[in-house]
Design brief:
By secondary structure, the protein is an alpha/beta fold. 47% of the residues lie in helices and 14% in strands. The strands form three sheets. Strands 10, 11, 12, 13, 14, 15, 16, 17 and 18 form a nine-stranded mixed sheet that branches. A five-stranded mixed sheet has the order 2-7-6-5-4. Strands 1-9-8-3 form a four-stranded antiparallel sheet, with no helix packed on it. A hairpin with a 4-residue loop joins strand 8 and strand 9. Helix 1 packs across helix 5 and helix 13 packs across helix 14. It binds phosphoenolpyruvate and magnesium ion.
């Protein structure tokens, strides 16, 4: 029996069996069950009430039971559930009531604000009473949806592969799966289609070619441990005349930093630090952050660029309630904008990054989602303030920004004047905002197999303008979006004189191999000339891309 499926993270693996979990998305499941969670919370409070020793304690628990059944609260939750996940609806409505209570003069009622928060917590905890089947090492997980949190947990088991119903290769969960070498395939109705699989069905997941095979007729022996995916070729740093082309890794954890070396990464062009928080499950203290930044630096001998926390939209953290309920989070509170609201988040991180640097380990630090000069100045000023407080020299650091909001493409001279020392183009978001297409829902620019669209051509010209401006202002540029992991686009970027490309590490060997051949076959100057001509019309661009 076999199924064709879409590749979300490459790799080929034999899994010893399959486990079907979470047949619906968490939101759907929670939506259907928030009343059941309520009943479970009620039962828990009833049990606590029977065990109380004193009248006062019993009165407190009974007040909590009354609160849990408050008709006004239940109606409010019911209304909110129509527009947001139920746990969030519970927390937000509880907060509304708590704030109202806190504003009252009566100290008794003020005190009830804390109670309602506790009851809301208890109700939310009752959601997780579903028991999911045991996931054993070497199994393939079949599920409707996958979060970053899942990937980080399952990588520790470790599982062999994932088959899921939803997602796109640019979702962060799958970018991390790519780095950790976990093959992922997307199959619609996977949960229903693969019902017959069980913990003992050997299953082959070929996420290089996009198919799943299983069945005892294959005569497959379940492997004892899942084979670790390996890079095929590891190449040295590319040097072409006076130019060095650095092919780097995007990482989000210490194990990924370690693995990046095996893939021949010339350094790390992007540390997605927000996922260090997600894997820890809480906001890391300053000391914890110093420790993890030092570990990353220890694992990577080459240059490392840290990006400060990029929280919001597709990177909301499971342990932080969403920052604000907005109709369009990708256009709302995210990245640098969050720092204006929560300055201590940035301050603590800058302190930790500063303390992780040293005289012989200079650091590059960039700020995410900068969209105007004021945000840049705010972040940089805070960095300089931190250095002054710690009495550390600014010469140990390079301060730069992610270029992923189109407005910054038109502010390069001003940013240069305001001391921006480098820019890293985040094509995942830049393309999303440039063409108004959700990065997680639609194919991006780019794929060897797909025709070059006119939007992709427009984007290529946009990139060229950014590169020209940056060169003019002498701001070094890199690219850390997934565009760099497509060979032809990587060559295109080299032709724009962008010599630092950072990507999911599984793409590094293929990019190094492709670039080293292409750059040997042709001179850099020649490639630059070809690209410049190709950009003069859509037809010529398509032709160059097809021949490149
Ligand atoms: C990008 O937007 O291209 C980028 C590298 O950042 P992230 O994917 O983490 O948003
Ligand atoms: Mg981004």
């Amino acid at each position: 029996m076999h199924w064709q499926a879409e590749i979300l993270s490459p790799g080929v693996v034999w899994a010893s069996g399959a486990v079907i979990i979470r047949p619906e998305t968490p939101e759907t499941k929670d939506n259907a069950h928030w009343r059941e969670a309520h009943a479970r919370a009620q039962a828990r409070l009833d049990t606590i009430a029977t065990k109380t020793q004193t009248d006062t304690d019993r009165a407190i628990v009974e007040a909590q039971i009354a609160m849990l059944n408050d008709p006004e609260w239940l109606t409010r939750v019911e209304n909110l559930v129509a527009t947001m996940p139920p746990r969030q609806a519970i927390i937000e409505s509880a907060e509304e009531f708590a704030i109202t209570l806190e504003q009252l003069a009566d100290p008794y009622l003020k005190q009830r604000a804390q109670d309602i928060r506790e009851v809301a917590d208890l109700w939310c905890q009752a959601f997780s009473d579903w028991t999911e089947p045991m996931i054993r090492p070497g199994m393939a997980v079949v599920t409707a949806s996958v979060s970053v949190h899942d990937i980080l947990q399952w990588a520790d088991i470790p599982i062999a592969a994932i088959i899921c119903e939803q997602g796109s290769p640019l979702m962060h969960a799958f970018l991390i799966a790519q780095n950790l070498g976990i093959p992922v395939l997307k199959l619609s109705s996977a949960v229903a289609n693969l019902q017959s699989l069980n913990a003992d069905t050997p299953i082959k997941i070929d996420a290089d070619r996009g198919y799943i095979e299983f069945g005892t007729e294959l005569g497959l022996e379940p492997p004892s441990t899942p084979p670790a995916p390996r890079p095929d070729v590891v190449l040295d740093t590319l040097h072409v005349g006076h130019v060095t082309v650095e092919v780097m890794a995007n990482i989000s954890s210490v194990p990924e930093a370690t693995r990046s070396q095996a893939f021949g990464a010339d350094g790390v062009g992007l540390v997605r630090t927000e996922f260090l928080l997600e894997s820890a499950g809480h906001l890391l203290s300053q000391d914890e952050q110093v420790d993890v930044y030092r570990q990353i630096l220890h694992e990577v001998p080459g240059p490392v660029t840290f990006r400060t926390f990029d929280i919001g939209s597709d990177k909301s953290l499971s342990f932080l309630p969403s920052l604000a309920q907005e109709p369009n989070p990708a256009l709302g509170q995210r990245g640098a904008r969050v720092y204006l609201q929560y300055p201590d988040l940035l301050r603590t991180q800058l302190m930790a990054l500063a303390l992780a640097a040293s005289n012989n380990r200079h650091l590059s630090v960039m700020f995410p989602m900068i969209s105007n000069l004021e945000e840049w100045q705010y972040c940089r000023n805070m960095a300089l303030q931190v250095l002054r407080e710690l009495n550390l020299p600014n010469s140990w650091f390079h301060w730069g920004l992610m270029m992923e909001v189109p407005s910054v493409a038109f502010l390069i001279p001003e940013l240069s004047q305001a001391q921006a020392q480098f820019g890293s183009i985040g094509t995942n978001d830049l393309y999303q905002y440039f063409v108004a297409q959700d990065r997680e829902k639609t194919p991006q620019v780019i794929s060897n197999s797909e025709a070059i669209s006119t939007e992709a051509y427009a984007f290529a010209k946009f990139l060229k303008d950014i590169a020209s401006q940056a060169h003019h202002q002498k701001i070094p540029l890199s690219v850390c979006g997934q565009l760099a992991s497509e060979p032809k686009w990587a060559l295109f970027l080299i032709a724009l004189k962008i010599y630092r490309l950072s990507m999911s590490m599984s793409s590094i060997p293929k990019i190094k191999e492709y670039l080293s051949h292409r750059i040997q076959d042709d001179t850099l100057v020649n490639i630059e000339r070809q690209v410049s001509t190709a950009l003069s019309s859509y037809q010529q661009f398509v032709q160059w891309m097809n021949e490149a």
